[in-house]
Amino acid sequence: MSYIVPLLLVFVLVLGLAKRVNVYDSFVLGAKKSINLSWTVFPYLATVFIMVNALHASGLDAWLTKIVAPPFELLGVPREVVQLVLLRPFSGSGSLALLTDVYNSYGVDSYIGRCASVIMGSSETVFYVASVYFAGTHVRHTGWAIPIALFCNFIGAVVGCLLCRIM
Amino acid sequence: MNIVWTVVTALSLLTLTFTHPQSVLTVCLDSCSQAVTATLGLAGIYCLWMGIFEVADKCRLVEGLSRCFEKLNKWLYGNVSKVALQYISLNLASNLLGVGNAATPSAIGAIAEMEHGEKLSRSGAMLFVINASSVQLIPTTVMGLRASLGSADPADILLPNLIATAVTSVVGVALVFCAYGVAK
Questions:
Q1: Which residue from A66, A162, A29 is spatially nearest to B164, judged by alpha carbons?
Q2: Do A164 and B111 touch (CB under 8 A)?
């Protein structure tokens, strides 16, 4: 599996050579476009990070976890990973740190640890992705997109925990 | 986004003012510095992938990819421009290969190509949901972390994870069809 991406990179370069494309100039042109993109994304990242870090530092996320844990448990999501489900849409690095905590507290191969793995693998940082994707556009009203994406994360957690119990 | 951000941030900062007043400014400033670091990291990733994509584009590789996924993408997205379809195909290929980092610049390209108004279109919502429900064959980060912490079998979550992501993707696409109707 670890060969796929390296081989892909080499393949594109060799194909460029074979098709007599100016590989060097093309690469520079593409790389140049990335500067603008990064500039556009930056203020959105800063704004989202303020919300995420404030939420975490204030302890409101832990409090919220306590409130929503019982209904989650009813659906088969163990109490110990509820905070991960809640934090995941907001922060990739934050949820990765939380995942490490879960591994260290309950064991990598425990039921809890496996649930946490699948929750992490089958979900996405919805708010972060939204801020990055729509950064360069005039989109202000995202309609159903974010609610649907959040619901997908939730379904992933419920189905993932169920599968971990039987597999 | 406006309401979510303002309410969550204001409530959190208010709580923090009462519990640790000295840390309010630190948290805010740290977040901005963190954004600088993250942006630099992303800039490097975008630089590599956008460079490679440009070469692939000049080789007409992206055009071929776009033809491969044409039927599927027409069904999912309906009538969008040829350029948008190429970005979407590139995005799908990156997601399937598990190179999430490469998926981001192509998705941004597609969104920029498709979205012109203030209201997100059906095709934009579809692309966002497909990316957010993470069509991912191999959860590389999670497996790497499990291996580094001494898991007996880091890959034993592969199957449940694959089924879970497949379920979320199907549910996501189905919900977009419910909310926005069939692609025109």
A1: A162
A2: no
φ, ψ (nearest 5 deg) of residue A67: -70, -45
CB–CB contact B108 A45 (8 Å): no
Give the number of C-alpha atoms closer than 13 A to the C-alpha of residue A56, restricted to the C-beta side. 22
Q: CB B179 to CB A143 under 8 A? A: yes
Residues B146-178 have pLDDT tens digits of 999 999 988 888 899 999 999 999 999 999 999
**In chain A, domain spans:** 41-166
* B15·A153 Cβ contact <8 A: no
Measured CA distances, A84 to A17, B139, B140 (Å): 47, 16, 18
pLDDT confidence tier of residue B82, bands split at 50, 70 and 90: very high
DSSP-assigned beta bridge partners for residue A53: none
Q: How far is CA B137 from the centre of its chain?
A: 15
Which one-letter amino acid corresponds to residue A12? V
What per-residue confidence (pLDDT) applies to B19? 93
Q: Which of A80-94, A125-139, B44-58, B92-106 has the lowest mean pLDDT?
A: B92-106
**In chain B, which residues have their Cβ closer than 8 Å to the Cβ of A77?**
none
| Distances A99 to A103, B142, B145 between C-alpha atoms, Å | 6, 9, 9
CA torsion A82→A87→A92→A96, rounded to 10°?
Answer: -40
Q: What 3-state DSSP class applies to B119? A: strand
Average pLDDT across chain B, whole number: 91
Q: Which of residues 11-70 of B touch A (CB under 8 A)?
A: 11-13, 15-16, 19-20, 23, 27-28, 30-32, 34-36, 38-40, 42-43, 46-61
Which structure tokens are listed for A132?
Answer: 């990055």
For residue B142, give both structure tokens.
Answer: 């999670």
Please, are residues A159 and A71 in contact by the beta-carbon 8 Å criterion? no
pLDDT number for residue B167 = 94
- Distance, in Å, from the CA atom of A144 to the CA atom of A123, rounded to the nearest integer, reads 18
Q: What are the tens digits of pLDDT across the range A90-131?
A: 888 889 889 999 999 999 999 999 999 999 988 999 988 998
Phi and psi, residue B121, nearest 5°: -80, 170
